[in-house]
User: Fold this.
Amino acid sequence: MTNEIRPVLPAIPEPRRPVPPAPIHPLAALATIVLDNVFGVFEILDPLALVLTSAAVGAVGFLTTLFVQRHLARDEWGAATAKGLVMGVLAGVPFQVSGTAVGVPLLVWAGLHRWVQLPPLTSKPELPPAQDDEIIDVEPQ
Assistant:
């Protein structure tokens, strides 16, 4: 053994978050809400174009969520594709309520995660536990 003193580095306190991060980027949730409500007008005006409008809204919702999740949220392609499919289907359902009913809680969740923080834990740094109780001086010979 050698008598070695290791400095204790102060820990940088991280803000604690009581709310976990949302699974969907807030921009993708907002795009789903907007697509659900904007294209809903066309569904009401022309019921015959309901199938085409729903398919177009679903495709735009899928692509929007796919690229937002891939490039802004930095998800892998598989996760971004899965999230894009779910949000595209929700936006493409011919009822205006479905995309909004999912998008608004996701936006609230993302906002709570971003702005609600608990104060950091303030504790004194602890020394690592000593392995031996005695100090032995070793002099080179």
